Amino acid sequence: MIRLSKQEVKKRWYLFSAGLVLLCLASYYLAFSKTIELYSKYKEVNQQKITSSLNSKKISISREEIKLADKIIERFSEDTLLVKEKLLDKFSGLGAEFNCKITSISKTELYDEYGLRIIHNEVELEGSYFGLLKILNELENSKSIGKINSCELYVVKDFMNKVTKLRMKLFIQNIDKNDDV
Prior knowledge:
Layout: H1 6-98, E1 101-105, E2 109-113, E3 116-126, H2 129-142, E4 147-158, E5 163-177
């Protein structure tokens, strides 16, 4: 048996250790790095697949939401036109009967709350004090156009013609059961 000196043993130990480290690095590079890279690509593809399936679900949900919104808008326009037509018919008849005229019918506001459809309207009339009060009395007794929430009487001065006119603003509300809910 050959006897080696301590320096010789240390030198061979360092060479062996360095060779082992190089062997590990080479095997990592050749085998494990490709496997890890392939695994990371697999995770990316899986993530993209999951996101694309979620996006397709979102698209189908948004299509359903658009259909529902279209249905609500269509129903809203039908309801508001019907209510405005009723208002116009009623106020035209009463205005002719009591010598008052319609000055404006404002935009209809619609709310859906607690399974109820609430429609708000504002109507302005112009005429004599007694004519406007008779119209108000007639509307409160008939209840054919909805409930009158409030009434406001005010004066408008026309400086060009030097005339003072009396106007009445009515706030009318219709409440129906909402069939869409």
